[in-house]
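During the no-cost extension, the postdoctoral fellow (Dr. R.K.) reprocessed legacy sequence entries with the updated structure-token encoder. One reprocessed record is reproduced below for audit purposes.
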Amino acid sequence: MQMPNSIKLFEKLIIWSLVIGIISGLFFPLQPFPADATPLLIFGGLLFLLGFEIGLMLLVSRLRSVIAKWIWIILQVLAVALFIYDLPTNDYSNPSTFAQFIVTAMGIYGTILLFTADSEEWFLSKQREKLQRLLR
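Re-encoded structure tokens follow.
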């Protein structure tokens, strides 16, 4: 089965949300870096989170992992809850606040795309392929 457009759009949304998040975080950080944190530690943490998010996205979109899909959904719900929790304390003069809103909206839309009819068929087709291999 060919990858549906909703899954392709999911990948594009997540990649672009990562790009927007990284650019806004580098140029307009919402919080100052801790004094005791070394740049290497901050860079390492950023690389770890970036790799984790890209890896989870690929598990969902390319390997059609239902477990990864639900982990993605749980993490997205937590991200939205954190965004709503931070709304009263955000500095609205900082462009990064607007970028954070855009990234959150892209994540919500990407998560919704995982529940379209063609996406559901995409995940079910993996199960059918496994069954066909077992029956051969």
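The chain has a mean pLDDT of 90. Helices lie at 5-27, 39-61, 66-86, 95-113, 117-135. The remaining legacy entries will be reprocessed before the final report is submitted.
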